[in-house]
Design a protein that fits this description.
The strands form 6 sheets. The chain has a 9-stranded mixed β-sheet, with helices on both faces. The protein has 474 residues and is of the alpha/beta class. Among the domains are: 178 residues, ANL, N-terminal domain (Rossmann fold); 94 residues, GMP Synthetase, Chain A, domain 3, CATH 3.30.300.30. It is 28% helix and 27% strand. The chain contains 13 helices and 27 strands. Strand 23 and strand 24 form a beta hairpin.
């Protein structure tokens, strides 16, 4: 029989497993309430209205105990996207926090409120490792969202690989404030601590005060996205309480998008901590990470995790071995998804002889550390015969004292093929376009300077803090 996904859940321990504000559940309480709910679930897919609450955590654990796929739904989802997901995956019911107001699109689906008391833990047989655990929908930037079928095998191997990379143990207490409808917040942030037998404290909403409080009172790790660490970088130098709390953390991890090198530097100066970055996708879960016991290289996402193979591939399909040469990341390993639900064509197109095509462009240094330069579709700019990654230009722009935020895209140019466009949120008086171009040319190379500068009050971002570059182009 396969090993259980949550080996510590059935121990009946009084140790705290989940804390969301005033709601806490011990391992014994979680086993009982999730076990009771699991017995009442249909043997079919179930949707979960994934609010950032302990209820969502209980619902997903219950589905995993029952061996039925859970489909997390973003509470901010739009009508059209919700209708597409419901038609595509046809869940048998929706699990929701009591009192949560659901959109009209869910009116025809049977609802079951998620309990926090009662139940009976019982015993559970672990399903086959290839059994679907979660169906997580992509953001749908290039068409209708695709349902990524993640088997139990992928969850277990990714979380165990992070145990190896981060020295993650049952003694760790994780603090985060991430949404619970995607890989980072739900799988890493909730299921990760539960698999290790540790604890998680969810803030509900991110605040630097909340982070400081938890890290000063027993939390050992923090997971966040660059927008969160950007706020920390801006405050830590002038907030001794925050700096001291961060200084005492065992591990600070950033993901879901690249953390600007400038923010890395500011956090290290204020706290002595070096933030660890890792790289993953919905389809692959985690691929690489800077190791807790390895060299920290700001701006890189580390080396391949245990069990993950990674290669860079050029435009003609050739494997690229040269140091610092740009290629598309392709990966294979037990961390990969099974299929796109109801999309055999898309599933086939996503693979190259067993290797998953990520669409992310990167380089590798002599030590094997991966540095992502951007998405193939939006962040690789071909200008004047050069392949230029938007990320390094963004990092250079952020070193300018009057640049608060920066994004870089390419747009058609009759002479260059594509010209580099900088989208700037200024800090104080907006710097002149020529000044910014000279700044980049001095730090990088003349051909990487922006030809056009556009100023904004804010960059368009999704729920994970990623800049939506297609919105910039529109």
């Amino acid at each position: 029989m396969p090993d259980p996904l949550f080996p510590k859940l059935g121990d009946g321990a009084a140790k705290e497993a989940l804390r969301f504000g005033e709601h806490t559940l011990t391992y014994a309480e979680l086993a009982a309430v999730a076990g009771g709910l699991a017995r009442d679930l249909p043997r079919d897919r179930v949707a979960v209205w994934a609010t950032p609450t302990v209820h969502t955590s209980v619902a997903v654990v219950a589905a995993l105990l029952a061996g039925v796929p859970a489909v997390p739904l973003n509470p901010k989802i739009g009508e059209r996207e919700l209708a597409h997901i419901l038609t595509d995956c046809a869940p048998a019911l929706v699990l929701a926090e009591p009192g949560a107001e659901l959109p009209a699109g869910l009116a025809e689906l049977p609802r079951r409120d998620i309990p926090l008391t009662g139940g009976d833990a019982g015993t559970w047989d672990e399903p086959d490792p290839e059994t679907p655990a979660l169906i997580v929908y992509t953001s749908g930037t290039t068409g209708p969202p695709k349902g990524v079928v993640l088997p139990r095998r992928a969850l277990a191997t990714t979380l165990d690989a992070l145990e190896d990379a981060w020295g993650w143990t049952g003694g760790d207490v994780l603090v985060h404030a991430l949404p619970l409808f995607h890989v980072h917040g739900l799988i890493l942030g909730i299921l990760g601590p539960l698999r290790r037998g540790g604890s998680v404290r969810h803030l509900g909403r991110f605040s630097t005060d909340g982070v400081a409080h938890e890290l000063a009172n027993g939390a050992t790790m923090m997971f966040g996205v660059p927008t969160m660490y950007h706020r920390i970088a801006g405050e830590a130098g002038e907030n001794p309480k925050l700096a001291e709390a961060l200084r005492g953390a065992r591990l600070l991890v950033s993901g879901s998008a690249a953390l600007p090198v400038h923010d890395h530097q500011r956090i290290t100066e204020a706290t002595g901590q070096q933030v660890v970055e890792r790289y993953g996708m919905t389809e692959t879960l985690m691929n690489t990470s800077v190791r807790a016991d390895g060299e920290r290289k700001p701006g890189t996402v580390g080396v391949p995790l245990l069990g993950v193979e990674l290669r860079l591939v050029g435009d003609a399909g050739e494997v690229i071995d040269d140091v610092d040469a740009v290629g598309e990341i392709q990966v294979r390993g037990p961390n990969l998804f099974t299929e796109y639900l109801n999309r055999p064509d898309a599933t086939t197109a996503a693979f190259d002889g067993g290797w998953f095509r990520t669409g992310d462009m990167a380089t590798r240094d002599a030590d094997g550390y991966v540095r992502i330069v951007g998405r193939k579709a939006t962040d690789l700019i071909k200008s004047g015969g050069y392949k230029i990654g938007a990320g390094e230009i963004e990092n250079a722009l952020l070193e300018h004292p009057h640049v608060a935020e920066a994004a870089v895209t390419g747009e058609p140019d009759d002479d260059l093929g594509e010209r580099i466009v900088a989208w700037i949120v200024p800090s104080g008086e907006p710097p002149a376009a020529e000044e910014l171009a000279d700044h980049v040319a001095k730090l990088l190379a003349p051909h990487k300077r922006p030809r056009v500068v556009r100023y904004l009050d804010a960059l368009p971002r999704n729920d994970m803090g990623k800049v939506m570059k297609r919105a910039l182009g529109a």
